[in-house]
Structures are given as C-alpha cells and as structure tokens.
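Example 3.
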Amino acid sequence: MYNQMVLVRRFEERILELFSEGMLSGTTHASIGQEADAVAVINHLAEGDIVVSNHRCHGHYLVRTGDVVGLMAELMGKADGVCGGRGGSQHLCADNFFTNGVQGNMAPVAAGMAYAEKAKASGAVVVLFLGDGTFGQGTVYEAFNMMSLWSLPVLVVVEDNGYAQTTPLRLAFAGSFEARAQAFGMTAGEIESTDVEVLYKHFGPLVERVRRDSRPHMEVIHTYRLCAHSKGDDFRPVDEINNRRKLDPLTIAGEHLGLERVEVVEGRIRAVIREAEQTARAMQYPRWTE
Amino acid sequence: MNMRYFESLNKALHELMQQDERVILLGEDVLDPYGGAFKVTRGLSTAFPNRVLTTPISEAGITGFAIGLALRGFRPVLEIMFGDFLALCADQLINGAAKFSWMYNGKVQMPLVIRTPMGGRRGYGPTHSQTLEKIFMGVPEITMVAPSHYHDAGELLKRAVLKGSEPTLFIENKSLYPQPLLVAVNSQVDDFYVYEDLAEDYPTVSLSLAADQRPDVVLIAYGGMAPLAVEAARAVFMTDEIVVQVMLPSLIKPFPLADVLSAVQRAGRVAIVEEASVYSGWGAEVGQQITSKAFDQLRCPVGRVGAQETPIPSSVSLETGALPQVEDIVKALRAQLQR
C-alpha cells in the first residue's frame, strides 16, 4: 500500500512539473495528501467491481489499474494513452473504471450501473468517489434516492478535503454529510484519518457489507489536499497547509516502514515513473482522421 | 381503422421486450393501470413486471441512471413525460451520453433511447408544449428520430432500440398520438402518391398529388408538422395548381440530405416548416445544407415557416397565433412561386 501511495504522489508531482515545463496542456487536479483514500478503499475490491471517479482521479486510476504509462500518455495527449488522448486528465475509462469532469453527473450513472449488476446477479459493487464540493449538486441526491429505493450495492466514498476549489466548506455547505445520506435511508459514517492502515481496516467491512446486503452506504473521509485544487489556485493560509503536512499520509506510513525501506520504495517508484515518462514521450500524437 | 400512432409505439415496446432481454423500460408513471401520461407504456408493466421501472421525478437522475444501464450492457428505453423536461436531462445528455463512447475512445457503447413527446396544439402552455429539438441539434453524437404518422412509428422505435449504439432522442409529437398511421396502399394514401425507401432504417416519406410532374416546390417537414404540410400542399394544388412534393424525414439529426437533394434540384424551390421558432432552428441547418449542394438549381432563397419567437401560450386562441398553421405554410408556398 505504501508503494501505491508513493506511486500516486511522485506521479502527480511529476505531472505538475511537466505542466510547468509546458509539456502538458489543459488542466489537472492532483490528489497530493489524499492518496491514502484511494489505496484504502480500492484494495478491497474484486475484479468485477466498478470504480466511478471524478475530476481528481489519477490516484484512483493508478491504484485500480497500475497503468502508469497509459495515464502518463493520456495526460500528454498521446495516441496510446488510455483514451487515445481524447479524454485527458479527468475523462478516463479502463475496465470497470469510469471518470467524468462534471461535478456529480456520474452519481446517477453509478446508480444505473449498480442496478445493472444487481439485475445480472454479478455480485459486483460500485464505488462512487465524490468530493465535498460535489454535495452542492442535485443529481447526488437524486442518485442517493434511487440507490436506497432500489437497494443498490453502492459504496459512496466522500473525500472531504475541506475545500471546493478555493471555497471553504463552511461557505458552501449546510448541515452534515451523514444526515443528508441518512435522509434517504442510507447508512452513513465518517472517519478522520490520513493513516492508510487505519483507513484500510476501516473500509474492509464496509465494502463487504455493501456487497452482502446490496444496500448503499456512504462513508466520509475527512482529509486534506496538500496541493492546489488545480494549478495556481491555492489561497489557503500557509500555516494551515503547513500544519497539515504533519499528517501527510506518506510520512505516517513511512514512519511505520522505516527509513531504509522507504528509500528502496522511493527509488523503485522514481524509476518506474521515469521510465513511463520516457515511454510516453516517445509515443506519437494522435492524428485527426475524419 | 389503422393502428394509431401511440398504439404502434406501444406494440413495438411489447415486441421489443419480448424479443430482447436487454431492453429495460423506465420513466415516470409508466406502470399500469396508468401506463404513462400518453399511454405508450400501457400493459408493459403487467407483461414484464421486472423490467419496467417507474421512477422518481428526477429527470436528470433517471437519465444518468439509464446511461449507467447502457454502459453495463442493457438497452434502456427511457420515457421523459414531456419533451420540455429534456432541459433537466441536458447535462446528462450533453456531458454524459453524447460523450462516453467517443471520449473513451470507443471503449464503451451508448445504446440509449429516450422517448419523449414534443409539441403544442393541446393548450398545455409554456412549459409543456415546446419543440426543443434544436437545443440538441448542435450536440455531436446525438441522433434524433421524429416519425410522422406517415411512418411506421413502432418499427422505427424498434430499430432505434435494437440497432442503435449511440444515444437517440426519439421525438413523438403529442398531437400525433391519437392519429391513425397512414400506411400507403399501392403507393397511395388518399389521393397522394407516396414514396419511401424502405431500405433505409429511418426513411423519408415523400408525398405528391402529381407524382408524374416535376414539383414546383419541395416542402420539408417532420413529426407533428406532417398533417399541416400535407393539407397545405393539397390547398395550393386545388387553388393555384402548385405541385408540391412534401418530404417528411424521420431522421432529423443527422439530416438525410441525400433523401431530398434530387427533388430539391428538380424543383429549384424549397420551403421548410418546423413547429419550433425558426431562429437558429432545424430549418436553418437543413436550408444551409441544401443551399450548399443545390445553389445553382435554386431559383430563390429557401422559405422558412415556424413558431413565433415567444413562449407557447396556454389559451388556445393565443397558441394558434404562436404556432405555425396551414395558412402560414400556404403563404410560404405561394411566396416561393412568386420569385
């Protein structure tokens, strides 16, 4: 799990550098500081399970697929990127993995996919990742209603990093996450942690319960993003960010592991990313064909 | 009497569900005994209780839900009770259904059919009477089918559901629901000679009172404008001896230009009628496509008929003023001959 977190961290750091160098265009949303969420949840999933992610999806994608080259190439807009350069950072699709760039519009899609899997009796669960800012979208509640009404196997994982782009939660959010889900008859809980071991243990029973009972559940992870929402749009107090660095999931997990093993992992991951970058750089750009 | 438009659609849905396990039907108030606001889904929930889903009033949500079904191998048919409510579905359609197949580089298909009634002439007022197809005219990857009662509406619905792999808006003009289907017998409906290329999935029906003559003008219309167009064609033939070839495409996006082009080139005069207001409308696209291919044969600019640039009023007398009428089409046809 530490490997996966380091992979996501170093990958996204490199992506931000490549943006600065002008190698990448468009926009991107890094999950630096939130890596433990993806790792703790997705490692509990079976092959047939479905992950539905959002604009901040690189971590979810890498943990789910391990496809470093495909994602790097996609971000570079290359023909052999995971979506042939058509999707880019926030529009990814691989086996049973889907993301889209509009807040909340995948929530009812996730419900429909869960209904389909239930109808096929496949036993698959759908994990829907949402951010705190997405809770302003009505489709989320339309989806919660359908998930509960039709008893669908959906685990909604809310990554509450306290900010919707630059807007703090308190300026955009009334009431509580859990009460909103519970109003639809869903079970809901919350955890505040960036410790991947703690989170991993926490999510195991939740995934299994959703699968066993075929009922939706929402779990909120209170976390923090140590990077900007995208690029050049970070106006949070420096002290606040620095305080949160003490809870960096990599630091916590690294302390459990010991310096020596950390360095081995770091070295290996850096090599993987360097190699993926070289491979992706050498790839062709797609040509427009009518 | 021939089967009526809504009965044809209802029969097609029964056959679709019988034929293909992947077809699943959903929408608001679609269960028996009500069977949908316009009775198109009548009997289906009784016959297929596990595959007909009545939904909450959540047009965006149920559109996304149907998209999810399509992504996992089903062929959902979603009923949106009034076409006006497609405004609520717009994000799901534009940023979801229309995108997934292409932006995921062909990794998924989107065999989603959304059936919805459009159009006025029933006094339903501003939010239940519109013709909003033009909103989706500019969205790549969305197909729009809008049969008139000269088409085999049910057969077209079956093709959309079984053959399609892209999101399809299936537009049913609500004034047509009670109309009997006008199926040609010996290539005739009443005194009109009728032609359609049955090899096409979504054929264009062509009607003329004098099929052996070169038409003076081609009149292009679809859906609920079909009966008005045909009546106008008869009127100008009787009073002015103007020979009109009425062409009724069932596929409105992408527009099947090839179906109308040779008739347009022969006539050199074209009028287009639609139930929506003309500004930025379907007819603007059709007219431009025609002009770009038949400029040298056109004797005058393409004529346009449509609704007024206002909301659709409730009061029948006002609604009549706002929506295109037979007289408006007659006027446009005569204007074509005066140039």
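The radius of gyration of chain B is 20 Å. Chain B touches chain A through 32 residues (CB under 8 Å).
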